[in-house]
From TrEMBL:
It comes from the Bacteria. Coiled coil: none annotated. Transmembrane segments: none annotated. Pfam families: Amino_oxidase. This is Amine oxidase domain-containing protein. GO terms for molecular function: oxidoreductase activity.
Amino acid sequence: MRLVDGAQIAAGWLDGETLQPLDCEGDPTGPLRAERLIAGVYRSLGVFMAERLAVTGAVRIAGASVATGDLLRGWTEQIAGIDPGAETLARYLTDAAVRPPPGEKHLLPGGMTTPLEKVAAQLPVTLRTTVRHISIDGAGVVVRSETGQIRARHVILTAPPSVAHAIDLPDMPAAQRAAGDQLRAIPAAVAILPLGEAAAGDSFAYVPGVGFLTANDGQEHATLVAKGAPAYRLRGWTRDRAAWAKTVTALGVQPDNRREVIVREWHDDPLAGGGFTAPVEPAGDAARQWRTPVGGRLHMAGEAAWADEGHPYVDRAWHSGRRAVDAILEELSR
Ligand SMILES: Cc1cc2nc3c(=O)[nH]c(=O)nc-3n(C[C@H](O)[C@H](O)[C@H](O)COP(=O)(O)OP(=O)(O)OC[C@H]3O[C@@H](n4cnc5c(N)ncnc54)[C@H](O)[C@@H]3O)c2cc1C
C-alpha cells in the first residue's frame, strides 16, 4: 500500500478533540502510554485514514514528542524485530505479527532445549545432527544427515526456510524455494551479563536503542536480548564494560565486570538464520507456497510456515506442528 504523509490532512479530521502533548522520555511505561495515544488517533480517524497514515504521522498527530515516537518505535522493534515507523497505523494496531496481543506468558526455566530433551528421552530422537538431504523416493522419503540415512513414509521439515536452503531438497520446486527465501528472519542477539551475586527477585527494563534486559530471581547473570537493528550493535555495546555495568545496575543488581560477557548472534547462526520471521508484507502468499507438501510426503512446519497467521512465537510453531501431523494422519487414514 502507498503511504501518504497524512499527518497534516488527518489533523483536521480530529474534529476538535484535544490530545495532550506527551513526552515519555525516561518513563519506563512510556511506550505503552504512547501506544494508547495513537490508538486514540485511530479511533478518531477511522479505518480509512488509519490505512493510509504511517505510525510516525500518527505520533505527530497525537502531539507526542519526537523522543516519545522514537521510544515507541524502538520498543516495538524489540517485540516484532522491525521498526514500525513506516507501517500504517491500521496495521500497527491490528496485525498480531507487528504487535502481539497481551496475554498469559510462560517461562521455560531450562531454556528452549527443555521440551526437545523431554521428547528425546521418550522417542528415538537424534539431537545435534545436521540434515543435509531430503528426497522423495518411491513410497517414502529419504533423509540423510552427517551420521547416516533414515527412511520414512512422511517427513516434517521444521527448519526455518532461510536455513533450509542449506539442505539439498531435489524434489522441491524452485518457486517454492524462492517463496521460502521471502520469509526472512529478523536479526536477533543475546548477551549474558555476569552479576556479582544472584539476583534477589525478578526485574525487567527496556533500554532504548539496545534491547530488553532481564534479571531472574536466583540467577547470577542478567540477560539482554536485542532484536532488529540493535542486534547488530550488541557486540560493540557489551564491549563497553562501563556502559553495560551501569545499565545492569539500573535493574537493582550488581554487575561483575571482571567476568566475560557472552554474546550469541542468532542471525549469524547457520541453523537459526535469525530470531523469527520478519513481519514483512505480503507474507501470506510466500507462507502458503512454502508449506505446500512436496510430493504429498514432505510437510513443512515451524513458525515461518504459518507467517500469515498470528504472531511469530512458540505458539505459532506449536500449532504448525499440529497441523502437519493432522495432515499426515489424514493421509494415512485413507
Ligand atoms: C531473542 C528471542 C526471544 C524470543 N522470546 C520468545 C518468547 O519469550 N516467547 C515465545 O513464544 N517466543 C519467543 N521467541 C520466538 C521463538 O523462539 C520462535 O518463534 C520459535 O523458536 C520458532 O520455532 P521453530 O520451531 O519454527 O524454529 P526454531 O526454534 O528456529 O527451530 C528450528 C530448529 O531446526 C534446527 N535446524 C535447522 N537446520 C537444520 C538442519 N539442517 N538439520 C537439523 N536441524 C536443523 C535448528 O537447530 C533449530 O533447532 C523468541 C525469539 C528470539 C530470537
